[in-house]
């Protein structure tokens, strides 16, 4: 987050640009999925969006990711609370983990906006008239044995629609 802000503030800052590029290499080389036989669901949901709209995969991920994080926080608040503690240094201070997770996700979304990223489907020109189709298409790419998009938790078509609706 520190390097991203610096790179956006001064595109000539080679150290910041190098660090951002290094972070993207780490994020995309498969290390984060080592030992896990699963493509991150947020990517599959976004692929369904960019298959229908002329947009960069990264722009779609920036919109879908906070919405997806809010969805999974209800099922795995401890995991998202861990993210908040590590990235933002926030301690629970009497808050339950779900509340802490939601506060951190809000902060993450604010950060994304400060570096000029879209955080809503509408910012990408996407309306909610095809949400059912996007959900169906996301599940078509990789369908688990239960018919859902693999993940923790697995996502049904209705779950995917709920994620997308939360990022109007």
Structural description of this entry:
- The protein is mostly helical and 168 residues long.
- The longest helix is centred in the middle third of the chain and has 19 residues, at 57-75.
- The radius of gyration is 16 Å and the shape is globular.
- Helix 3 crosses helix 7 and helix 4 (57-75) runs antiparallel to helix 6 (97-114).
- The chain has two domains: 1-37, no CATH class; 40-165, Up-down Bundle (Dehydroquinate synthase-like, alpha domain).
- The chain contains eight helices and no strands.
What share of residues are in beta strands? Answer: under 5%
What gross morphology would you assign?
A: globular
Number of helices: 8
CATH fold topology of the largest domain: Dehydroquinate synthase-like, alpha domain
Query: Radius of gyration from the CA trace?
Result: 16 Å
- SSE ordering: HHHHHHHH
The name of the CATH superfamily of the largest domain reads Dehydroquinate synthase-like - alpha domain
Low-confidence stretches: none
Question: Could you say how many structural domains there are in total?
Answer: 2
Q: Mind summarizing the main beta sheet?
A: none
- C-alpha termini separation: 24 Å
What top-tier CATH class of the largest domain fits best? Mainly Alpha
Quick one: how many beta strands? 0
State mean pLDDT (0 to 100 scale).
88
Oligomer kind: single chain
Please give the structural blueprint.
Layout: H1 2-9, H2 14-28, H3 41-52, H4 57-75, H5 77-88, H6 97-114, H7 131-141, H8 157-165
């Amino acid at each position: 987050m520190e390097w991203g802000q610096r790179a956006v503030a001064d595109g000539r800052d080679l150290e910041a640009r190098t660090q951002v590029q290094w972070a993207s290499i780490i994020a995309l080389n498969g290390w984060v999925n080592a030992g896990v036989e699963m493509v991150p669901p947020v990517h599959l949901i976004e692929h369904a969006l960019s298959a229908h709209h002329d947009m960069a995969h990264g722009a779609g991920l920036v919109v879908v990711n906070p919405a997806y994080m809010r969805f999974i926080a209800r099922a795995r608040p401890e995991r998202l609370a861990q993210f908040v503690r590590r990235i933002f240094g926030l301690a629970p201070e009497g808050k339950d983990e779900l509340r802490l997770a939601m506060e951190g996700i809000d902060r993450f979304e604010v950060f994304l906006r400060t570096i000029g990223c879209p955080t809503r489907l509408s910012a990408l020109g996407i309306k909610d008239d095809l949400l059912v189709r996007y959900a169906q298409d996301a599940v078509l790419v990789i369908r688990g044995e239960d018919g859902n998009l693999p993940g923790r938790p697995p996502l049904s078509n209705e779950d995917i629609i709920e994620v997308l609706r939360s990022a109007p």
